[in-house]
Amino acid sequence: MLDGFARNRALAWAGWSFALAMMFFLIAPSLIVIPMSFSSSEYLEFPPRDFSMRWYEGFFGSLAWLQAARASLIAAVSTAVLSVPVGTLAAYAARLLPLRMKIVVGAFLLMPAIVPSILVAIGYFFVLAQINLIGTMTGLVLGHTALAIPVVFVIMSAAFATFDANHERAAESFGAGRLTIWKDVIIPQIKAPLFASALLAFVTSLDEVVVAMFISSGSNATLPKVMFSALRDRIDPTVAAISTMLLLIAMVAVVSLLKSGSKRADG
Amino acid sequence: MSASATSAGTVPARGEGRLTGIFGPSLRPYLGLMPGLAIVFLCVALPCLWLLYLSSFDDAGRLSAVNYERLIDQVSYRRIFVTTFLVSAQTVICCVLLGVPLATFIASLGRRSAALFIGAILFPLWTSLLVRAYAWLVILQRNGLVNNWLMSAGVIDEPLPLAFNTFSTVLGMTHIMLPIFLLPVIGAMRDIDRSLIRAAASMGASRTYTYRKVFLPLALPGIVAGATLVFVMSLGFYVTPAILGGGNVQAISMRIARSLSTYSNFGAAAAIGVVLLLSTLALLAVSLLIRRLAQGRAGGGHA
């Protein structure tokens, strides 16, 4: 069918229009928040009647929103800083295990991605209550790190699968210490996937709602938590302004990722 | 033990012997895994065990199955499970109906165009669930985009109830899940040996017949994997049904959150959580079994 596919004109035309329509379905809805965020109206109107920056002014003028943004940024950066070395080390170590253990360890490390986040949230809430970490940044960062570990682990396992261990053996046979080997031999070879996993870990934490909802509170309440309650009670157009800024962050992340990827391909 | 014994022979004893133990390739890889395993244990495994523990006591603190009996006896609980399963099943069906033709098309493209499409598919994965739920509200609500357009075009007189129901929930979930479904399916379809397709065509099979009898069976393991992933993830959805369902769609996760925050009923919340977790694991096991069988049959066919 694949070879015959292109030869049949009607089928190819149908295929292209269906595929482009689906791409529109996948992408366009998220982009709609951009014009909405510049609307002057209290209500959701599309297209907006008047241009205004009032929702951005509202965001940057509100202590509650700014505090939430600050908490989210701290949590996301800390999550990336913590989960990347932990996940990378785990991926590095896992490939040295015997096959059976490798499967068991891999399944365990992927658990945070499989277990529904509401269960992680409430179970973790009880665990944190035991050690008095509810509402603290430490508790939140640890939880988000657990959620980011599968992402880092999967990306870095793939990176180490194509990693040439001979360089490492050579360095070792010349008497290089382990820290030197990591700094000068291993890390330069896995820079692009390291960058990718750091970005994804950052975004994982930045977008996470459910765990943050249960265990972050007060001045540590994250942006998604505050956004979620703003959306549940009434439709607050400030959310459109924040969504637009989040989209911008996502786009910057994707572009920088593509750039780092193409750089690797050139070098 | 055996790992440290062999490495002692290959790695010369050095001052940084301890570092070699933690970061080295040969000495005990388990040490490198420790931080990751510890964090996942503390934040995910222990919480799950805790729920299991909490769910097995009644209000007076006695060991009992009362929390689980309630799930079976009370209609309201059963209804929530049915709703969640139905919404998840509808999401899977939408993903399969839209995703399989789309994946077929993308898999048939050249490398360059396929990469472009895959980039476009990945884009929504980067955008927050909240952003997308909000966007769907803008589109679907009473005075939203669709209703405004249809009214001004004179197609309808009254706004259609598009938001805050099962329809908007399934639409929002399909929008989120479709990329997750597409990736493994496109991968599986690209891996299919084209010569099998050509062989079928050269023996006079029609395009439809080849697609149905050769291509789809070969793509089936990928489709099953994608569908299971979608179903399992849909069962645990919280944000999308909470916002797009507008209180009219009660998902399991929302009930768990409510029992906890409104009624402080830990035992009930924990029991629902345990059942949700077990359903998730059971589904994954069944899917794994199906894939094994499918692969076994495909292998038998070749032999």
UniProtKB/TrEMBL annotation, chain A:
Pfam family, one: BPD_transp_1
PROSITE patterns reported in the protein's UniProt record: ABC_TM1 (PS50928)
Subcellular compartments: Cell inner membrane; Cell membrane
Keywords noted in UniProt: Cell inner membrane, Cell membrane, Membrane, Transmembrane, Transmembrane helix, Transport
Entry protein name: ABC transporter permease
Domain ABC transmembrane type-1: 69-257
Residue ranges of coiled coil: none
Record-linked PANTHER family: INNER MEMBRANE ABC TRANSPORTER PERMEASE PROTEIN YDCV
Bilayer disposition of the protein: Multi-pass membrane protein
InterPro entries: MetI-like, MetI-like_sf
CDD domains: TM_PBP2
Top-level taxon in the UniProt lineage: Bacteria
Source organism of this protein record: Shinella pollutisoli
Record SUPFAM superfamilies: MetI-like
Transmembrane portions of the chain: 12-38, 58-91, 103-129, 141-163, 192-215, 235-258
Family affiliation: Belongs to the binding-protein-dependent transport system permease family.
TrEMBL record, chain B:
Membrane topology, record value: Multi-pass membrane protein
Gene3D superfamilies named among the record's database cross-references: MetI-like
Transmembrane domains' residue ranges: 30-53, 80-107, 114-140, 160-186, 214-239, 268-290
Family matches, as PROSITE patterns: ABC_TM1 (PS50928)
Keywords, sorted A to Z: Cell membrane, Membrane, Transmembrane, Transmembrane helix, Transport
CDD domains, per database record: TM_PBP2 (cd06261)
Record flagged with keyword Methyltransferase: no
Family that this chain belongs to: Belongs to the binding-protein-dependent transport system permease family. CysTW subfamily.
PANTHER family hit by this protein: ABC TRANSPORTER PERMEASE PROTEIN (PTHR42929:SF5), INNER MEMBRANE ABC TRANSPORTER PERMEASE PROTEIN YDCU-RELATED-RELATED (PTHR42929)
Protein name, entry field: ABC transporter permease
Taxonomic path: Bacteria, Pseudomonadati, Pseudomonadota, Alphaproteobacteria, Hyphomicrobiales
